[in-house]
């Protein structure tokens, strides 16, 4: 019935800041960017392999509940071939990265960092 994840939607509090983070720092290319005047809202479709991130802005969105963790989507994980290089890239951009952990079930290394609104993002070593 389901073939793949098509997209993940993220609502940000500062569109320019989040667009810069996802495009310049994470390197995600823009597929299309649309301003919807009737909603006073930007929508930016970003490519992540065969999947997309839809980055939305809305006037005055409520903050995300994350600690203690609430029921619902926990985090977004990105597959990386070289975890150490990805961590160095983020740190050079001034992004705080948690210490590397090892997934006890797969033996793969991973770490967490956050987007400008505190959304938890994961880097997961795939090779």
TrEMBL record:
Gene3D superfamilies: 2,3-Dihydroxybiphenyl 1,2-Dioxygenase, domain 1 (3.10.180.10). SUPFAM superfamilies: Glyoxalase/Bleomycin resistance protein/Dihydroxybiphenyl dioxygenase. The lineage of its organism: Bacteria, Pseudomonadati, Pseudomonadota, Alphaproteobacteria, Acetobacterales. InterPro entries: Glyas_Bleomycin-R_OHBP_Dase (IPR029068), Glyas_Fos-R_dOase_dom (IPR004360), GlyoxalaseI/FosfomycinResist (IPR050383), VOC_core (IPR037523), YwkD-like_dom (IPR037478). It comes from Gluconacetobacter johannae. Residues 4-126 form the VOC domain. NCBIfam families: PRK11478.1 (NF008551). This is VOC family protein. PROSITE patterns: VOC (PS51819).
């Amino acid at each position: 019935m389901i073939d793949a994840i098509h997209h993940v939607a993220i609502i940000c509090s500062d569109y320019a800041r989040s667009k810069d983070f996802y495009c310049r720092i994470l390197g995600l290319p823009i597929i299309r960017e649309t301003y919807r005047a009737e909603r006073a809202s930007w929508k930016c479709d970003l490519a992540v392999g065969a999947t997309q991130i839809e980055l939305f802005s809305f006037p005055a969105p409520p903050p995300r509940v994350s600690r203690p963790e609430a029921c619902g989507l926990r985090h977004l994980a990105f597959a990386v071939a070289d975890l150490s290089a990805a961590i160095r890239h983020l740190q050079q951009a001034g992004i705080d990265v948690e210490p590397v952990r090892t997934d006890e079930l797969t033996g793969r290394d991973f770490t967490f960092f956050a987007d400008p609104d505190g959304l938890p993002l994961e880097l997961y070593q795939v090779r």
